[in-house]
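Recall from the previous chapter that SMILES is a line notation for molecules. Here it describes thiamine diphosphate.
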Amino acid sequence: MPRKPIVTATIERLEILSPDGSVDEALLPELSGEDMVGLYREMVRMRAYDEKAVKLQRQGRMGTWAPLKGQEAPQAALALAMEPEDWLIPAFREHGIMLARGVPGHVLYAYWAGDERGSAFPEDVRVFPIPVPVGSQFAHGAGVGMSLALRGEPGVAVTFGGDGATSEGDFHEALNFAGVFRARTIFVIQNNQWAISVPREKQTAAETLAQKAVAHGIPGIQVDGNDVFAVHVAAREALDRARSGEGPTLIEAVTYRLGDHTTADDAGRYRDPEELARWQERDPIPRMRRFLEARGLWDEQQELVLTDEATAWVEAQVEALEAMPAPDPADIFRYMYAEMPASLREQMEELREEVSS
Ligand SMILES: Cc1ncc(C[n+]2csc(CCOP(=O)(O)OP(=O)(O)O)c2C)c(N)n1
Ligand SMILES: [Mg+2]
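With both inputs in hand, we obtain:
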């Protein structure tokens, strides 16, 4: 018998908004002008919040920070596409969508300032705490998607991760479970080209990260991750599919980390400045502004007002952060378990005694 192909997989790439602000009209999602402006406003707010955090760290007012600069589009697009009932299971660079989903700005700053209270989100905020192990959140995402169905509750689990995280076993285990159980889960990979100092080419021999879905029997798509419309279209399709019981989707958003890995890193030591310059030209924010201006939806005056608003909002988050009373040292034992195990309780009492003596 001759050999014959039994699996042929196609991975599509979606682009709608070009760096010069022009769009493919046929592919443009049906969004109101207000929603389009809302996407832009959200991205500008994210950047202001992010840039301020880096400054605070440089001034010794923040412990550390993982800059999201350049990766605003996938976060704004998913935030708009998600419903209030949906859950966000972030990695550690999703500050933007965490804010958009209701995590208070000063609380998220507190996390990065090394304060345990930074993981205590308001009860009605459907956002998981920040995981530090790379890739562990994917299994939580698959589990949340499965459990929503088991409990007969509405909602979809949206989990984020990086290009590097797709090399972790956890990623594949999560996709496997999600595929088998048709979990109501969306996996969003922010392929920002780098995992600290490891470039995308050295990360995996796979041509795209989206195709990693194929082995697990779930659909995968690659989108221009600096194009907020392309991410939005892919997100809506994936959310609709999950909501109607058709199972999970993997979205690879191709973007770029314009900043350092964290404030403890200096990307200038391993990155070519020309590469950075090329990606700066593809920045998601100016291209959206060009689009809105060309449509008559935005002008210089609105830009000035927005800049002032974003700055004032960020300053208010800093003030709220710095007005927080000093933390209780026992906080380091809290927030992990609903009911604290006896061993932790013992350690907490021990610390209390030491602090008071
Ligand atoms: C299991 C594990 N291995 C290594 C690390 C150290 N580490 C932190 S972030 C990171 C790179 C992650 O890269 P990627 O998944 O592309 O996400 P990005 O930082 O680019 O957003 C590494 C290796 C860790 N936190 N956890
Ligand atoms: Mg990365």
